[in-house]
Amino acid sequence: MNNIKYRKMKNSIFHGVIFCVTLIGIIVLAVLLIDIVIRGIPYLTGKFFTNFPSRFPNKAGILPGIVGSVWIIGLTVVFAVPIGLGTAVYLEEYAKNNWITKFIKINVSNLSGTPSIVYGLLGLAVFVRTLGLGKSILSGALTMTLVVLPIVIVSSQEAIKAVPQYLRHGSYALGATKWQTIRKIVVPTALPGIFTGVILSVSRALGESAPLLIVGAATYISKLPDGVSSVFTALPLQIYYWMGLPKQEFRDLAAAGIIVLLAILLTTNALTIGLRNKFQKSIE
Amino acid sequence: MSDTAGTESNKKAANKNRIKRMKVSNIIAKNILFLFAVITILTTIGIVISLLKDSIGFFSEISITEFLFGTEWTPLFSEPSFGVLPLICGTLLITFIAALIAIPVGLFTAIYLSEYANRRVRKIIKPILEVLAGIPSIVFGYFALTTITPVLQFLIPQTEVFNVLSAGIAVGIMTIPLVSSLSEDALRAVPDSLRQGALALGSTKMETSMKVVVPAAISGIAASFVLAVSRAIGETMIVTIAAGARPNLTLNPLQSVQTMTSFIVQASQGDNPHGTVGYYSLFAVGLLLFLITLGLNILSNFIVEKYRKEY
């Protein structure tokens, strides 16, 4: 009898301990957000969004970072979505179960585990030097495309796998070819899931700084980019630049920049979760 | 009569043409999509070739043994020394601290969410962990530098401004969601019949979780640990911001170190003209980093494949 009491007590203690451990992540997140908001809020004025960085903290703004990030993300989506979706469609719909397919799948999984800084070195060697694109938006976007490609591929694959088989069979029974079935049935049905992956990759590209630093993105520029061959900076790099300056005011500016970054990320995150819930319902 | 027959055969011919076109476009589409899939392989080949090519430039001047076993990393000295051990030591020290945080916290979070939490609690906690997973590493770097380090300095006054412990804690927190979500997937894949069997024999929930469910899911859990280690080794911004830039062969977590990744960032920002040993050293360190993370990724896949139990 005593033994059972002891075991039940142990269970209750365990329950309490792992609940508290689970809260660690949540508490840290709360502390981090509150800390950053308190530091950064005073600098979040209209000027902050329309000014260039300046050596006077109260005049400094984040405009070049925002514009640069929009360029990079826009181009990355243009490159990564067709390639990623195409790869996923090939792997799920066309590929035979042979060694090439297996190799491609293992390869994608390894690429998704490769540190982003390694892609930066690839970008530096191939896009910046060998192809002669220089320290440009195009080099940055191509590098970023390779970073997010595995995310687009894997999430599109999941979405395509979730399309019920009978929809495909219905289409074939009406005499459609595989390509017609993919275009008119499979991809439209999987669209919300594919879109989720695209948003995920956008938020990854938005927060990623290491590969851009390596391909030579500037941390400080005085002119907005006017084309794909311009030098550029990006939101996280602007934040990194301010963090490295010795004055406390600049660290607070960095916090203001982080608020902007996180606000965009949380919005996209909420969008993803909403879409996924809708998607799950529509499949069921 | 013959007129209608004519339109009939016309129709048939048109139909045949249409079907032919459909089939041709199907084949074209298939081949184009295959080319897209090949891009992923080209990426890997690109990584290997670009890292190898410039590493060869490096290793033609520095011997591999000097690189791998040298204890001095001083690329900027007038007589530079390229022993990578201090960078490896810094990387492993930070990874160790990160693992010390991410592995137990991640695993217990996974057990709580999969075995104990009811649906309502799960619905609240899961999205929060997803938000944590989506926070960019530069933000954790900021947090380490402006919050964790001052707290550490308050607790242990001899902590340096840039130190291993602060960076390691931040990297660990960043990797918690990775461990918890992958481990939770593994735990949830264990069939309920096993749990019911254990409970029917009179086990408590804790005994069921720790002695039946966790052992049954151990391959997925172990794989998540390996992936977390690999992620910590490749983490760049946190260590660049919070751990400093001093190659330092030390085990003291209160000191500043340089990791493989933060060296790559530092060297790429400096003036290392193309063709110098300094420039090539970037790629030699990158190659080592790539090989280590590749090895860990393969190991994690291997664990999943080899020890997966089918129920």
UniProtKB/TrEMBL annotation, chain A:
Residues 66-271 form the ABC transmembrane type-1 domain. It holds the Pfam family BPD_transp_1. One of its GO terms (cellular component) is plasma membrane. It is a multi-pass membrane protein. The chain crosses the membrane at residues 12-41, 61-91, 111-131, 137-155, 185-206, 253-275. InterPro entries: MetI-like, MetI-like_sf, Phosphate_PstA. Keywords: Cell membrane, Membrane, Transmembrane, Transmembrane helix, Transport. One of its GO terms (molecular function) is phosphate transmembrane transporter activity. It is found in: Cell membrane. Gene3D superfamilies: MetI-like. GO terms for biological process: phosphate ion transmembrane transport. Its main location: membrane. PROSITE patterns: ABC_TM1 (PS50928). It comes from the Bacteria. PANTHER family: PHOSPHATE TRANSPORT SYSTEM PERMEASE PROTEIN PSTA, PHOSPHATE TRANSPORT SYSTEM PERMEASE PROTEIN PSTA-RELATED. Belongs to the binding-protein-dependent transport system permease family. CysTW subfamily. This is Phosphate transport system permease protein PstA.
UniProtKB/TrEMBL annotation, chain B:
Keywords: Cell membrane, Membrane, Phosphate transport, Transmembrane, Transmembrane helix, Transport. It is found in: Cell membrane; Membrane. It comes from the Bacteria. It is a multi-pass membrane protein. The keyword Transferase does not apply. InterPro entries: MetI-like (IPR000515), MetI-like_sf (IPR035906), Phosphate_PstC (IPR011864). Residues 88-300 form the ABC transmembrane type-1 domain. Its main location: membrane. One of its GO terms (cellular component) is plasma membrane. One of its GO terms (biological process) is phosphate ion transport. GO terms for molecular function: phosphate transmembrane transporter activity. The keyword Transmembrane helix applies. The chain crosses the membrane at residues 28-52, 84-110, 131-155, 161-179, 212-233, 277-299. CDD domains: TM_PBP2 (cd06261). Belongs to the binding-protein-dependent transport system permease family. CysTW subfamily. Part of the binding-protein-dependent transport system for phosphate; probably responsible for the translocation of the substrate across the membrane. This is Phosphate transport system permease protein. It comes from Ruminiclostridium sufflavum DSM 19573.
